[in-house]
What does this fold into?
Amino acid sequence: MDAINTSDLDIADRRVDPFLMSVLKSRFEAIVREMTLVVMRASRSAVIKNARDFSCAILTFDHKLVSVEDALPIHVMSMDMATRPLTELFDDIARGDIFLNNCPYTGGTHHADLIMAMPVFHEGEPLFWVVALSHHADTGAPVPSTYLPFAKNIFEEGLHFPCVRVAQDYREKQDILRIGTMRNRVPDMWLGDVRAQIGACRTGERRIGELFARYGRDTIMGFVEDWFDYGARCAKAAIAKLPAGSYTYETRHDPVPGVAEEGIPVRVTIHVDPEKGEIVVDARDNIDNVAGGLNLSENTATGSCRIGVFNNLDESVPHNEGAKSQIKVLLREGSVVGKPKYPVGTSVATTNVNDRLMIAGNCVFAEMGAPHGQAESGNHLPAGVGVISGHDPFKNGKPYVNQVFVGYAGGGARHGFDGWLTYCGPANAGLIQLDSVEVDESMYPIVIERRGVLPGSQGFGEFEGAPAMAGVFYPLDHDMTIVYAADGTSFPPRGVLGGGDGKESESIKLAGSERVVLPAFAEETIEEGAKIAFTACGGGGYGDPLKRDPRRVAATVNRGWLSREAAETVYKVALVEGGELGVLVVDEARTRTLRAA
Amino acid sequence: MAYQVCIDIGGTFTDCLVSNSKGEIAIFKSPTTPGEFEKGFIDVLHVAAEGYGLTPADFMKQVDLIVHGSTVSTNALVERKTVKVGLILTEGHQDILVLREGPRKGAFQWRLDYPDPYVPRHLTRTVGGRIDARGRELVALSLDDIGKAAADFRALGVEAVAVGLLWSVVNPAHELAVRDLLERELPGIPITLSHEINPMPREYKRIIAAAIDASINPIVRTYIEKLKTALDDERFGGELLLANCVGGMMPLADMIRKPIYSVMSGPTLAPMAALALSDEPDIIVGDMGGTTFDVSALRDHQIIVTPDSMIHDDSLGIPKVDVRSVGAGGGSIAFVDEGGLLRVGPRSAGARPGPACYGKGGTEPTVTDANVVLGIVDPDYFLGGKMQLRRDLAEAAVGSIAARLGVSLHEAAYAIYTTSNHNMVAAIEEITVREGINPRDSFFVCGGGATAIHIAEMADILSLKRYMIPRFMAGLSAFGGLISDIRNEESAVFLTSSATFDAAGAADTLRRLRRTGDGFLAEAGVAAENRQFEFAFLGRYEYQSFEIEVPFEAEGGMLTDDDLPGLVEAFHRMHERIYSIRADNDVVEFTAWKLRAIGKRSGQDIWQRNTLADQAGDVAPKAKRGVYRQESGRVDELPVYEMGDLGAGVRLAGPCLVEAETFTAYLKDRHHGEIDRYGNLVVAVA
It folds into this structure.
């Protein structure tokens, strides 16, 4: 059992009995889980159902995060920003109200994430917010996508709801919903998804009401304070183990023609104070807003700065207000990574540059030296997760359009662990399902000729990045269009502390014997007979490859991810047949010689 | 006298439930014998014979049926002691078992390596050849590649082969050709084809099932053969049936053909028992043992089958009765974390060293230790007094938690007790909320040795109004085996949609399924009048990527164009039930068709003939015992009743304890119990 210093427990400051702590913690978690299931069960669109692109949370009425479960980190680490404007803008918040917020200038993440918030009252006193956020399939933008890298300002984006009351006295406001459905390409789906969120909020409100009835106001509110203290204690204990100092890391998003010809550098400095158990994340030293949709919102910039830190703390630290309060974020207005200057576009604020910000946050800890930090990971939106469209020849030319998840990028290495293969970019954190070949082929008129791991594409190191995923797919008997935004083509994931880089993303059209390299950000037609070949970045390596445990090298070769030759040239590890048939083991003597040379 | 027997092999004990021709049931136990389970199997039959005052030979002569829930395949999988499997996949798709559909992980969980595939790369080969979604051959099968794979497998000493080729479910020609060639090249090596073991159009699920099936094939076959030999030696002349994971029994020959159906079959018998014990529509079944709490549910008095069962880092592939397991048992260890929060489990003291109070060297505080400190468990009457527990060791262990939290010993014990209850409640809510069952309106059936200690508080947390503590709670799964049907599931892929419905093709698919199902029941010796067939299809809305299972009526398994509106409406309804919405204007796609073949056995309801005599008036408690109760904040003297003394109609009012040799039940305030005519304690909460 872990050694515990009893004096740290602040028993004297305790507000509720210790048994109630565990009990109410699990009650609040159960409420968020039930809200999550309501959204999951009742939503219509594939992004929500399959890709789980939604999150639920409970906050106190003064905007402190109480509980999140099974949420996408980017949705919830700064949820307070989306509810805070509500108490500033409204002086008549009442029981049965529900508010809608998707505006980056009133605390939203980006236009496609509709945030629904409902106050929870107890005997006339507002005490909590229950919140459900869903990424909607369409927001009525000028083009049929929710990611618009070229949309310079909000007038080129989808519809904004800058804190709008969508229900009053438990009744939906039809006029508000009409605004939403009128400007939407899939109005039924939009309304269905909105109602799923309303259902989740009402479930959360009812369940918290039951908690009040069972335990009473003072116990519940006392618990919340204890719970925040606990979160702060856990975060402080984790931060206390880090070396004091200031550390800086810079990564760079690929060039986007017409928006950022040189790419977009993303720079983060952290100031670590182990004695106070506090980390300040400073992202102010970044370039000004760009003329496109790649700018972050204040919400995503703040959240991503915290996510980088949490990715480097023990996963058992609760992700509540107490823990968050130990991580301070500094942003600059008018910066691409910061508070956007009205009315610049932010429609891609949850992926691309945002992914780079999380990557910088993950990697800056490596500046402390081993065992801290992690290497750069692969980026999102390669052609393997492109939006495909066309006219289905097997359905009388019926049009189809959807995002596929055939292959996506791998994760970066960290000390002690190789990168996660099915990673899909830092915002998705390995939570997104990979498509079944047969399901895709039965749904769309395509053939996925190959899809798998690309050996030798990982960033080498004492710990290896995940290898790249690569594949080839093609349309059957028709022309197919594909849209993608493959960051990591020009600036692939870098290794840290001597680790190697992961392989870059590739988008290639195969037509007969011809190989045409496609641009990294594009909308391309793959004609009948032609094929698209993609590579989704491998992750960067961590530490000196010559320090890699030879047994790990042998395992990687046996897994088919590394050649025997590379084991000798890169890792100076010699392998021989031995033991189980068909399995290589370390040739200890030759390895010693190789590594000594 | 004729006897029917169910033998359920657990981690520590092999349970044997015997019913005589009057329906009187008795339970016998003998230690499990790992490595040679058939020994414990025969041992417990001898114990039963002795219990009836018969020689083993005389007893075995009168046994006409043995049903058995084997754990041999589950153990092999859990301990990763399966045989060496060679895997053949489609060229270009060598990583199907590596990628899965993206393994699950937590959002901030980074201290982990990516899991290895179920079949390692050096035993995986790909072959050229490709079928498309419509069954057309895009690339011809490479016989050369198969020949090379066979030669490699021979050289590598492969003991079983799994074949998983893309779209074998719509055109099996390539998989069948692979088998033809392999059978010649690798005589005697069992071969599992993915389209036969798990016909569904989702390659990872289909192929992982084939790989798991192949990897346990020789193990299950050997075990069944040993069992048969051992029973032959005992001159057993009756019938032996094996439990499968779809909630029924199957003959040996079928289990040898599809050994994957034996995986995790034991726990699926608990919901089958509940199905027989209660007529309630929505039932939750909880089974708390030493290391885990298994929970399952019945909706509309039907078992729930899930396609999402996991074993280590992989899906089981095939659908099975939904039983979820969490690390919350009597042996779960309590600790205080860095921030000062009490946590219980999932780490367990297991059977060795076990809880501190077992006196076998364990020092860490467990749930059982807390129950001893609270006074709910009597250290002198554990397993009917056959095992002495040490209160002093329990107090010392729980004392460490009390010191950490700065509370009294009793308060610490209660904190462990209630935290453990909340962990189990979370598991119950997970299954009920997901399945659209309201715990407040559900009936709860307790199983396993420890559930009845915890049910009262869990019921209060869930606002559950009624629960049952069955007379044979500790052997609930074995009871389920004794009363369950013969059952098998068959499925076939046939893709069509409501826009272009091919009724003839669907009807042909159903006819083939029906023939297979009939054959199965005939082989199992089920008379024609005792055969039932249930049909279902897997469907989805166009561009949805998950299928749901939709039962439908098909008279004699026939389908015509006229049936389409009915099928579509059944789909909309099921979709609305599971996901709360329906899309009347969307195209419905049909992907696979399923048949459940059910055979009723004679004598499976015989237990209902054995009823208890009514008992009027008050019953005196056998003792009083001090139990710490959080609601009063002190130790209260509670009456203790002996289950065996209670006749039908006896009423008990909580707070009180009820003890039997195999369990202790704790009824709280406002919990009123009544013994039903079968001897079960049914509790209502006021």
Remarks:
- Confidence is low (pLDDT under 50) at residues 1-8 of chain A.
- The first helix of chain A runs from residue 18 to 42.
